[in-house]
């Protein structure tokens, strides 16, 4: 036994550390004289002896870490500590288990039935039941030799004597000798591989510090021949049990004190503990595209949800309104005991029309608008019309004079025959029977004469440019002759020197035009000219003036031929002054009209918007003069447009906004001001808060006398009026008068803030030179210096969308507004049907919204008087352009999904499809319900959705960039007027629709369209040539790309033009974009090489 135990194992002999291990085992009793060899690991063999191993004996495959401490775990030998080879015993046991059939159950003994055969066929795999080795060599034994995991025979002795498991176990119990060679079984020959001790797990410690380490199995048996565990534990002072760990003592394995295990702890430089399982991270190349797609879609969805909430919440309480014109007539216009003559008690109104450039805003269009205003169905003496010519052009001035002259026939004709509409161009272009609902017998004759007069009027208007040019050339030539004659008579200067006479623009009376000349000169250019004011039609008499049969070419008997007051105004402009564009022109009209007519209400129109309903003013007065009307700051009418193509390709009618959003806001605090078709209360424009009904109770004379301005604003001292409104005394005195005349009638106890009936029947005072001179003074360029005009008073400056800001300031002070939708459209105008002009128009609106967001007019900073839903509506006005950033990302997501092969969701399972379907159905139902209560057609709603994406990816994004540049870098933004002229093809009223004018705003939509088209083609080809085509993933990505392209369809049609007249620049940009996208994607995700080593690849590879 001793010789066997000291014999080195074959594994140890084969390994370089075998010698060292053997020497160490023989020198355990003399550890003090160790050779200094470093021993850090030890193992216990199956025979019970210990072998020390050095670091070089171990296969170090991992990094060493000091974070793990080494310890020893006792893993004992077999329970009876048999001297037999454990590997052979284990293999025998495995052989027995694998070839046995175990049976058992409840209340029955578990039995093992050894099976020689499991199936009829031959079993070849060694792990399968029934696989056995060779026959046993013992006499009278039919057993099979044991086999290892590879199917090889297990021979426990070097003599190669084949023996089965049962015979081997009997030999071990009886003599321990091999039946073949009669020698003891050599245990070391069949030891297992040297275990890995890098994890710090060590075998049992040696039973003693010295002496014989032979196997004590035979000495520790009891009387029955079984191993005595208690005796073994007592004599060896060992421990027994799985999982018993202890720290080895110093030098217990024969190491020196310097490099042993100090304190029983292994060095920190040993290998760290290795886990049985670990997390395998997914490659960034796989997960990153999905993370990016998912992250971008989540961010975009959050923003879209936020903007959707801002858009939908203010629509919670939409309302409809109606008026009763008969009640208005009975209350204000019918004769009564106190009014036997039947004079009107309605308040006066001033109508403003603004124009700036006769080249882009044709004078004929403006003249027709003026004619529709002058013929409005409202008391003549209560109406005053003002035209603001911000360009100071003589062409506009003479066109307005021609319009005033033609009104002498047109206005009585409209009154006589009740003409609708009262725009002559529109009326004579109607495709309906003109005699319908006409009762007079002379209507056809009068209409024929009127049509002839209007044709001549158009000829005169259209011929004004040439007429002015010829006249100016003639007068300039005359001035040159005078100058030459004077030089010859005085004999001064060189007669050969060219005469320098300014190329002036001459008026019809032979004087210089004080405004802008055709050839700009000092003090005669668009930004440098004097203020001009011309009363073209003086105020009418208070009493009706009936026409006769011989007065005009048309019989106007019993027809009132009076005309409203009409004034031409061109404010002064000088270099160095900020004139604030349209807002400055409107404020100049407010001051001039306050001095001349002082109507308590103001209605402003663009030059291309005219009265389509002659009773529109009375419709608005029904709200202003009703109970509670004193708190209304303005009446906003919807905008309706003519000349729009039948399909409304670019959503020019904007019915979703005017019939949906605006009507919904009418149920909150009122609609926003949209720049035209709006009737203002003059007192609200002056920056005052809405009146308090308690004032009338405190002031006994409040119902009969006008209050002073200081009565409405306690912080406004009378001496400080010039600081707010300027130095004009007439303007300051007109403020309380306008406030008083704008009150409703105090004819009911519920009206606590009204005026007595009959107070407005007093005739207006005639104009004098002093009053007109004061009006010229208030339109000078210096008048607004050091005042609150544009800051608190009038139209607000600082934004290209001054209309929205002006309305917001009024709502912020507590006023409310009303949306007036009439059965017959109140006003109609023109809109740009050309794609480029439409995009530039939307760009101006969006830029103004961005300016509002970054200014103190942001609704976040509003007062408590601004209702919460109204605040959300104004927040949406300032925030909606920023949606373009997320919209552009969303338009690229389907293409990125198709390029990368990763969808927004990893799998298109049924849960995602149901979720997507539910959201889509919810949005569609919401849109249908909104369409139902607003009266919008589905086609109009779809056009609005299409143009929302077109403008969101082009104009809105550019507006955000320009707004940021203005806020960060202070770069001002300038816009040009939208041209209102027709196209080259005069026979087609939709000629402008097919004009393609290149603009940089078209680049983003083109990039989006090309990217999605290329992505669909790329994904389609990749799916076809893939090994396992994933058509569901392709269809999912292609559907969203197609959805983007469907929204861009009107934009594509706009680029195509008509009759294949697409500009070359469109094809150039498309090609460049396609090439750029392809190269960019190849650079980001280069194709993988699938060819063989010699370069001959197989299959298709997308370049």
What descriptors fit this protein?
disordered N terminus; cellulose synthase (UDP-forming) activity; transmembrane; 33 helices; transmembrane helix; 39% helix; elongated; 8-stranded mixed beta sheet; membrane; 3-stranded mixed beta sheet; 1103 residues; alpha/beta
Structural class: alpha/beta
Net shape: elongated
The rounded distance between the terminal residues' Cα atoms is: 77 Å
Strand order of the largest sheet: 9-10-8-7-11-15-13-16
Q: Tell me about the largest β-sheet.
A: 8 strands, mixed
Based on CA atoms alone, the radius of gyration comes out at 51 Å
| H/I helix tally | 33
Task: Compute the number of strand runs.
Answer: 17
How helical, in percent, are the residues?
Answer: 25-40%
Strand content: 5-15%
**Which spans have pLDDT < 50 for at least 5 consecutive residues?**
1-51, 53-69, 71-75, 77-84, 188-215, 241-247, 252-266, 696-704, 981-986, 1090-1103
Subcellular location: Golgi apparatus membrane
Membrane topology: Multi-pass membrane protein
Protein name: Cellulose synthase-like protein D4
Active site: 390, 803
Provide a concise account of the structure shown.
By secondary structure, the chain is of the alpha/beta class. Helices cover 39% and strands 7% of the residues. Helix 24 packs across helix 29.
Topology:
Elements: H1 2-6, H2 10-14, H3 18-26, E1 41-44, E2 50-53, E3 72-74, H4 86-98, E4 100-103, E5 111-114, H5 165-174, H6 229-236, E6 244-246, H7 284-312, H8 325-332, E7 349-355, H9 363-374, E8 383-389, H10 394-417, H11 424-427, H12 443-462, H13 464-490, E9 532-537, E10 565-570, H14 581-596, E11 601-606, E12 610-611, H15 616-624, E13 632-636, E14 641-642, H16 655-665, E15 678-681, H17 682-685, H18 693-698, H19 709-712, H20 721-725, H21 729-741, H22 769-778, H23 802-812, E16 816-819, E17 827-830, H24 835-853, H25 868-879, H26 883-900, H27 910-934, H28 938-952, H29 955-969, H30 1003-1024, H31 1031-1047, H32 1049-1056, H33 1064-1084
Helix pairs in contact: 7-26, 9-10, 10-12, 14-22, 16-27, 24-25, 24-29, 26-30, 26-31, 30-31, 30-33
